[in-house]
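Design review, sub-item: ligand-bound model
Attendees: FS, YL, KQ
YL presented the inputs for the fe (ii) ion complex:
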Amino acid sequence: MAKSAEIPIIDFASGRPEKEIAKELCEAAITYGFIYIRSGALDVGAVDRAFDISKHLFSTTDVEEKKRCSIQKNNRGWTGIRSETLDPKTQKAGDFKEAFNFGEFVDGKAQQPVPNSIADREGEISDIFDKFRALAVRILYLLGVGLEVNPPDFFSSTHLKENGSSGTTLRFLHYPSVDSAEETTDAIRAGAHTDYGSVTLLFRLKGQAGLQILTPSSTWAPVPVCPPTTESDPSPPVLVNIGDMLSYWTNGLLKSTTHRVAVPTGDGDAAASDVLEGEGFKGGRYSIALFCHPAGKTRLEPVPSEVVQRAGEKAGTVEATGTGEGKVLTADEHLATRLKASYIDLYKK
Ligand SMILES: O=C(O)CCC(=O)C(=O)O
Ligand SMILES: [Fe+2]
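KQ shared the predicted structure:
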């Protein structure tokens, strides 16, 4: 069995000193780019409701109705099986998944078509979006504290709703069951990629593993849904990962780690001793992500942090824009470049 990824688990339980949590979080973000967060981080009910809505959406909405809500260049809406290709250089076929993206809500209302099947739950989805975003804002604040950014809310304040619209996206993902050889040959559920934004919160269900990260030795390591010590928690920890924008913004100090969702091989028998719990699960898989982005107009300028500056000097990359071209991008420009590369058909039109 491939060895599981070593990803630190950080306890967000109330009463722990903020500086201690911030330090652990930064160390994990610098070394691994992935972090599990457990305890008191989030209202468990909101996660359950989100999965309930997602399952209802994918299992009861007919294709015509999904098409009415098709993804647009604003990155909102439904994207069908094989229509997104996260690793266009390598993949022979698009990702074996479908997804529904919600952009930001205004006064509880979606700014995009919502499928009839879940129209009565629009306010609930907006509430879930806000709850997830509040956790992301807390994480971004703690990263500011840990990196000694001045002011410490440098990252988090740009993610507040009141500071302007952003590309932040709540995404419901559905990976259909893989049954036939045709479905498994050359197929991948989500191609190898790094996330585009600042941080991503990922929610998964017990027994539905499949996510893998690329280790520094270029091997794929599975990321368990419930890593050791969290097995009896009421719900799996939230998996947080650093996206390209935050890596770029910190001159590469925080890691944006490559990951993918592989198509399971083998017999999917979770009881077999060489299989991680839920690894090799061939049935329909659901996950939910909140991809966070700062307000679109935010210029991704050097972060006012001596920790980041010193790390850049040590690595010999003092220039803080990370491109080597010296041009400061806005958050919107950064996102547009990445979307164009992965939605090949949408941009052909
Ligand atoms: O479904 C998962 O576990 C991960 C999905 C993912 O990495 C993504 O959508 O960016
Ligand atoms: Fe991802």
